[in-house]
Design a protein that fits this description.
single chain, alpha/beta, globular
């Protein structure tokens, strides 16, 4: 694996190998007083975030440090980007300075792919940590890992994804990955929050949340991305909550084994009731925890796996 830019077209065997590696790393760290593995000693990982982030940025930093890599954080506001430097020049500067891997979040769809092209000659790997409304592949991998933990397998499971699909890179990456792994994916949203061409996706589309819950093995709520909305996509937060919010009454419609996911940050009271978010059925903190191990696995496959295989 040279880069991780997308889950579209991902080989299921490769995805499962990354998930199995994450599980192995989780077991390797279990019970250790000092959570450190020497796997990436001598490697330099740079996180370059042009959008705000808590979970993704912190988990990548922890993942790198737990594997003994040198991790350097670059923010747009604190770099030469604020002076007008282009993304290409910033990336080439980081590669020239010795970055083995650049983890990038950018508001423009396709930015990570452009970056990978520019850095190909330098031999620097690129991980897409979210590009506009396009993709967020490591989020989909950690979601799949969490589903495997809770349900045993993704294959054959019915996953209901609810909310702002139109603006969600999380939804797109999950659709590609979960269907590749054999899941039956249902998208539930008002028509205004579904992207054009969704009819061609390998999913079922519904506008009625209550009708889909009795057969759901998992319900994944999406964040309503008001910062990407220009105009009225739904009448009000209250009406959105009435139609698409997951409350205690709706949770009772799901099978007893069904799990609740949310990529965060959550809009409590609108997308999800606090009683549901804090219930044993919710795996939201598990997603964050698994995100560290999955991102460790991604860094391993990018920076260490090939070397170990050839050793």
């Amino acid at each position: 694996m040279r880069h991780l830019l997308s889950t579209e077209g991902i080989d299921p065997a490769t995805a499962l190998e990354v998930l199995d590696t994450a599980d192995n790393l989780k077991r390797a760290l279990l019970g250790r007083e000092v959570r450190k593995l020497p796997t990436l000693r001598g490697r330099t990982v740079v996180t370059m975030f042009y959008e705000n982030s808590t979970r993704t940025r912190v988990s990548f930093e922890i993942a790198g440090k737990w594997m003994s890599a040198d991790v350097i954080n670059v923010s747009a506001s604190g770099s030469s980007v604020s002076k007008g430097e282009s993304l290409r020049d910033t990336a080439l500067t980081l590669a020239a300075a010795g970055a083995d891997c650049v983890i990038v979040r950018h508001p423009a769809s396709g930015a990570a792919h452009r970056l990978a092209g520019w850095l190909e000659e330098a031999g620097t790997s690129v991980v897409n940590a979210g590009d506009g409304m396009h993709e967020h592949p490591t989020q989909a991998l950690l979601d799949a890992d969490t589903l495997r933990d809770r349900l045993g397998s993704v294959n054959g499971r019915r996953i209901v994804i609810v909310g702002d699909v139109l603006h969600s890179r999380v939804a797109r990456s999950n659709v590609h990955l979960l269907t590749a792994l054999g899941a039956d994916v249902v998208l539930v949203a008002p028509p205004t929050l579904l992207p054009k061409g969704v009819e061609g996706w390998p999913v079922t589309v519904s506008h009625e949340l209550d009708a889909e819950l009795p057969t759901a093995d998992a319900v994944m709520l999406l964040r309503v991305q008001a910062e990407r909305m220009h105009g009225g996509f739904f009448p009000s937060a209250r009406e959105y909550s009435i139609a698409y919010g997951l409350n205690e009454a709706r949770l009772r419609l799901t099978p007893d084994h069904a799990v609740v996911l949310h990529p965060g940050p959550m809009l409590r009271g609108m997308e999800i009731a606090s009683a549901v978010a804090d219930s044993p059925r919710a795996a939201i903190t598990d997603q964050v925890r698994n995100g560290v191990h999955v991102r460790m696995a991604v860094l391993y496959h990018l920076l260490a796996h090939e070397e170990e295989a050839n050793a």
